[in-house]
Amino acid sequence: GSKKSRLWVDRSGTFKVDAEFIGCAKGKIHLHKANGVKIAVAADKLSNEDLAYVEKITGFSLEKFKAN
Description:
The chain is an alpha+beta fold. It has one helix at 48-58; strands at residues 5-9, 16-25, 28-33, 38-42. The protein has a single domain (5-62), classed as SLA1 homology domain 1 (SH3 type barrels), CATH 2.30.30.700. The radius of gyration is 11 Å and the shape is globular.
């Protein structure tokens, strides 16, 4: 797979997906799964680690979506 692909995990730890980051818009993180399917996940459903990764790539702050 692509070297940009990574494991994304939701806040509860039940949802895990191997995908490549495409973009972030309107509070959703757009991902391209290893099987070719594109999905959009609500930013406030993802782990803080995933949100920090998106921040690093995009330069946008996602603080308001992070769990306290």
